Amino acid sequence: MPPEEDAGRIHCRLDELLAERGMTLARLAELVGVTVVNLSVLKNDRARAIRFSTLTAVCDVLGCQVGDLLVVVPRA
User: 15, 43, 45, 68: least surrounded by Cβ within 10 Å?
Assistant: First the structure.
């Protein structure tokens, strides 16, 4: 099990990617086939897990790679 201090070091760049593409969270949810609430949890860095199928669909719709969407925040 990873150390507790590593919890929350993954940052989701969904806001930035949506802004770059002029897309709303609601439109992304519609295209991906998940709820706005689920994407909101991801966008606000509150997700504890994400299905690979959802991650793949988000990346396909946004035309990005996983590393463009999710980044590891350096330790303080």
Answer: 15
Rg over alpha carbons for the chain, rounded to the nearest Å, is: 13
User: Which SS3 state, helix, strand or coil, does residue 10 take?
Assistant: strand
Burial string for 26-54 (b: 16+ CB within 10 Å, else e) reads eebbeebebeeeebeebbeeebeebeeeb
What's the rounded Cα separation, in Å, for the pair 7 and 49? 12
Which amino acid is located at 13 in the chain? R
